[in-house]
């Protein structure tokens, strides 16, 4: 029996296509790296979140293979049943050291970690205060928890302060959540001010450091290390492995009481199979590499500076960002796709990001840089942008 015609799926799909927002995954014939293969063509890749070039690092791959020899492939069960191996335990401890937190809990994805924080800590009588441009997983966390969602203007600490002051005295737990590095914008709000404002109101702060972990901080400990924010200032720290760490999965870090509470109550931790132990072992190896070899962060910073100054030289304006995410705002969705396709024709993979991932009228090319790039890669991209955008 097909889906009922009354559901109107074809019509809805046609509407998505008509406004230039139809999306389809591209088929990669290679692993991640500065260069990827699509349709038999080698493309310079400026769309990945593999900021340190670890996703295809041989040492990370070797750690994964060695762990498969020990543990096999699947974890076989959830953490609380019998899926929690010594590889998972070692990763939790490595993350606690990296982030300077008391305890860590692993999740299978960052999306699940954010849902798990809200569902484990908040209920209908509670409030979740969020930056308007927070990642979809944080916003979705509000509905899964039943907490009242209140949003403040992007990066606007004064507005956050007003929102906190306007809360009903009857509100019980108030959690302020923010991306540290905004995923589609690349900017970092004033995290110390956000922490101070949150603490002053007696609320708690959750930071989603998906795009900061490994990249920010002298040791790669992320936004909290870079901005000297300890466990008291940011009691709920979330990070992911699928970006700078080059693997997959996520974690939440914080106090003993936080981790024990999530262990008992966080549904996306409890009711799902633990990540494969080999992925945990590979992630441990990534952490060793990023802490021991700081040259990747230094090199990435140099590439970011080079890209920004070369783009300024050709008279192009990027969105304000000092991180590896350097978006070029286009506006119209179809125009963003056209530009992305024109770059593709010249050998560059720079994916257009359109609504609903970004606000209406703010389609953009989300250009991301990686330590896997070299200066010549950056110069080639700038050259292509000069030919296509500033002609
Ligand atoms: C800010 C942010 N939080 C959470 C996630 C979700 O992480 P994951 O890909 O591990 O589900 C992402 C990206 O995917 C992200 O950009």
- The number of helical elements comes to 15
Number of strands: 13
Helix content: 40-55%
Outline the biggest β-sheet: 7 strands, mixed
CATH architecture tag of the largest domain: 3-Layer(aba) Sandwich
> How many domains would you count in the coordinates?
2
Average pLDDT metric = 96
Strand content: 15-25%
Superfamily at the CATH H level of the largest domain?
A: Type I PLP-dependent aspartate aminotransferase-like (Major domain)
The sequence of SSEs as H and E is HEEHHHEHEHEHEHEHEEHHHHEHEEEH
Question: Nearest-angstrom radius of gyration?
Answer: 21 Å
Bound molecules: pyridoxal-5'-phosphate
Task: Report how far the terminal alpha carbons are from each other.
Answer: 54 Å
The neighbouring-strand order within the major sheet is 3-9-8-7-6-4-5
Shape descriptor reads: globular
SSE class:
alpha/beta
CATH fold field value of the largest domain? Aspartate Aminotransferase, domain 2
Low-confidence stretches: none
- Would you state the CATH class of the largest domain? Alpha Beta
């Amino acid at each position: 029996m097909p889906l009922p015609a009354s559901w109107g799926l074809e019509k809805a799909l046609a509407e998505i296509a008509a406004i230039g927002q139809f999306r389809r995954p591209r088929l990669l014939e290679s692993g991640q790296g500065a260069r990827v293969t699509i349709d038999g063509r080698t493309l310079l890749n400026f769309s990945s979140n593999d900021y340190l070039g670890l996703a295809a690092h041989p040492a990370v791959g070797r750690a994964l293979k060695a762990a498969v020899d020990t543990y096999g492939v699947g974890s076989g069960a959830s953490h609380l049943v019998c899926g929690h191996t010594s590889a998972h335990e070692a990763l939790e401890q490595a993350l606690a050291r990296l982030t300077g937190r008391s305890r860590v809990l692993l999740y299978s994805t960052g999306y699940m970690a954010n849902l798990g924080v809200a569902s484990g800590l908040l209920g209908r009588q509670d409030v979740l205060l969020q930056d308007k441009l927070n990642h979809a997983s944080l916003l979705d966390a509000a509905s899964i928890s039943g907490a009242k969602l209140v949003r403040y203007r992007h990066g606007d600490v004064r507005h956050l302060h007003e929102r906190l002051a306007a809360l009903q005295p009857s509100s019980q737990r108030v959690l302020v959540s923010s991306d540290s590095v905004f995923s589609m914008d690349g900017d970092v709000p004033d995290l110390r001010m956000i922490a101070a404002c949150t603490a002053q109101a007696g609320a708690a702060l959750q930071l989603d450091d998906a795009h900061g972990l490994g990249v920010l901080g002298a040791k790669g400990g992320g936004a909290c290390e870079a901005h000297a924010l300890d466990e008291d200032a940011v009691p709920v720290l979330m990070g992911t492995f699928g970006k700078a760490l080059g693997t997959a999965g996520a974690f939440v870090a914080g106090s003993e009481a936080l981790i024990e509470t999530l262990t008992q109550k966080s549904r996306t931790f409890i009711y799902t199979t633990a990540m494969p132990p080999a992925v945990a072992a590979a992630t441990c190896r990534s952490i060793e590499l990023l802490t021991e070899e700081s040259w990747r962060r230094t090199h990435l910073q140099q590439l970011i500076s080079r890209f920004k100054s070369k783009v300024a030289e050709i008279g192009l304006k990027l969105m304000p960002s000092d991180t590896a995410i350097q978006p070029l705002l286009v506006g119209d969705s179809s125009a963003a796709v056209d530009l992305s396709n024109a770059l593709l024709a010249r050998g560059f993979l720079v994916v257009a990001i359109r609504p609903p991932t970004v606000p209406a009228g703010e389609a953009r090319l989300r250009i991301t840089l990686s330590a896997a790039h070299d200066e010549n890669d950056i110069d080639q991209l700038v050259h292509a942008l000069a030919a296509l955008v500033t002609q």
